[in-house]
Amino acid sequence: MTENVLIAGAGIGGLTAALALHARDVDVTVIERTDLRPLGVGINLLPHAVRELYELGLGDRLSRIAVAPAAVAYYDTDGALLFREQRGIDGGYGYPQYSVHRGLLQMLLLSALRDRLGPNAVHDNCELVGFDESDGCVRVHTSSGDLVAGALVGADGIHSCVRRRIHRGPDPLLWSGSRMFRGAVDGEPFLDGRTMSIVKGANGVDLVVYPIGGGQLNWVVMLPEAQQGPLPGDAKWNRPGDRSEVLRHVDHWNLHWLDAADLVRRTEPVLEYPMVDREVLPWWGRGRVTLLGDAAHPMYPVGANGGSQAIVDAAVLAEELSRDPVHGLRGYEDRRRPETAKVVEANREMHRAGATQRPDDLARVTAKYRTDTKADRSHA
Ligand SMILES: Cc1cc2nc3c(=O)[nH]c(=O)nc-3n(C[C@H](O)[C@H](O)[C@H](O)COP(=O)(O)OP(=O)(O)OC[C@H]3O[C@@H](n4cnc5c(N)ncnc54)[C@H](O)[C@@H]3O)c2cc1C
Fold first, then answer.
1. Judging by beta carbons within 10 Å of its beta carbon (0-12, 13-18, 19+), is residue 65 exposed, middle or buried?
2. Average pLDDT over residues 371-377
3. Residue (of 351, 327, 342, 348) closest to 372 by Cα position
4. 183 contacts 41 by C-beta, under 8 angstroms
5. Which residues contact 168 (CB under 8 A, 6 or more apart)?
6. Pocket of ligand 1, candidates 7, 12, 222, 336: which has the most ligand atoms within 8 Å of its Cβ, to mutate?
7. How confident is the model over 7-31, as a mean pLDDT?
8. Residue of the nearest CA to atom 10 in ligand 1?
9. Which atom of ligand 1 is nearest to the CA of 142?
10. CB 270 within 8 Å of CB 346
11. pLDDT, average across residues 132-153
12. Each residue of 171-196: pLDDT tens digit?
């Protein structure tokens, strides 16, 4: 059935899926709406995702562009340590955790795919606009004409067109009530140079800051400003944010080991994104179509699982399709849908618990998150 798989979307999930399918001798093509530039700022890959990239032979290249955090540590606004837990190899996992620039990660995956499949492996500036299933194949309508494939994987992100076409009912973005201001900027290493730091400010304001390789520091400031509910406006990854809104909250902090206000002042551009997800879907696909990554299970970007779960999806999809070309799409969904639904819920819970500054609560929340998301399974 799946003699040729067409993946819509050359993001982190779509590119990894193409590499994983190719590694298992499944014929694959990727289409991408944009002209593929290294967009975004920092992203974190947990050991269960890093393991899959190592399996694809990308471990060395990844380690050269990323930083492997040794710990996640929580601080108050005077820079005093509240709680610390080790991560990656230092935390006893079998693989490192990596903090990396999302755009550089995407370009690494793209260049590996082009090396392995040839220069035309990804058709860029080619947008999926619809599809029909008939005569034992999927006819995919794109901005550059029709393509025919044995299966279609919608890896087209949080605003997925494939998802909209197979789930016709209401499927709104659900807003946590927080906005995230983000940026990456050159900066000296702080603390031991391998600590992902979370500063707990007043009224639920959090600063998350960590090195991402290339001498850059990535930061995110979360500002709670409304009750959970419908999102006013939309969610765009590259929307510019107003740095003065962030400075208002951090300019009196005195961390000693990092000048948070200076970091924000020097960052160009400051970006803004609402913390959103969507309701968990009862099914991802029928027949020859399925979803992957944010298209299937958009989640709050807390817990470092957005990109990580997309990468695990990619590995399982390839495994199931190579094992059973007829029922592989459903086998993939049966394994991944319940797992990712738990992560979506765990991220919501982690966000709700976020205002606490008590060390024992922080220890409890992070331990529960690890259990709920089965992160423990990649321990050595
Ligand atoms: C521009 C951008 C910047 C981001 N920046 C960050 C960041 O700084 N930090 C972070 O944690 N996460 C960021 N993300 C999200 C993060 O990449 C994902 O949450 C995660 O990696 C899951 O990846 P994904 O492949 O499912 O989705 P994405 O990485 O979002 O990839 C989806 C891809 O599908 C393409 N696409 C969309 N519609 C169509 C269509 N109709 N036809 C063909 N192609 C289509 C998009 O252009 C995109 O390349 C960003 C996403 C994007 C698109």
1. middle
2. 71
3. 342
4. yes
5. none
6. 12
7. 98
8. 43
9. 42
10. no
11. 94
12. 999 999 999 999 999 999 999 999 99
Tallying the residues shown for the chain, one arrives at: 380
The sign of the dihedral angle between the CA atoms of 305, 10, 96, 94 is positive
255-279 burial string, b = 16+ CB within 10 Å, else e?
beebbbbebbbebeebbbbbbbbbe
Q: What is the mean pLDDT of residues 100-110?
A: 97
DSSP alpha helix (H) spans, the chain: 12-23, 47-55, 59-65, 102-117, 161-166, 243-250, 260-266, 306-323, 328-352, 359-372
pLDDT over threshold 70, residue 263:
yes
Q: Kindly report the protein residue whose alpha carbon is nearest to atom 41 of ligand 1.
A: 128
Structure tokens at 54: 């190592």
The tens digit of pLDDT for each residue in 242-258 reads: 999 999 999 999 999 99
How many angstroms does the Cα of residue 12 sit away from the middle of ligand 1?
A: 7
First to last CA, the chain: 37
Residue 317 has a pLDDT of 98
Q: Indicate if ligand 1 lies below 6 Å from the C-beta of 31.
A: yes
User: Which tokens sit at 310?
Assistant: 């997309």
Q: Which long-range contacts (CB under 8 A, 24 or more apart) does 315-319 make?
A: 315/16, 315/20, 315/52, 315/55, 317/17, 317/20, 317/21, 317/153, 317/290, 317/292, 318/17, 318/20, 318/21, 318/23, 318/24, 318/26, 319/20, 319/24
Lowest-pLDDT range, 58-62, 135-139, 219-223, 367-371? 367-371
Q: Whose Cα sits closest to atom 49 in ligand 1?
A: 11
**Tokens 């799409």 sit at which residue?**
329
pTM of the model: 0.96
Q: Which atom of ligand 1 is nearest to the CA of 8?
A: 43
Nearest CA to ligand 1 atom 1: 39
Q: In Å, how far are 55, 91, 294, 317 from 60, measured between CA atoms?
A: 11, 20, 26, 24
Q: Flag whether pLDDT at 380 surpasses 50.
A: no
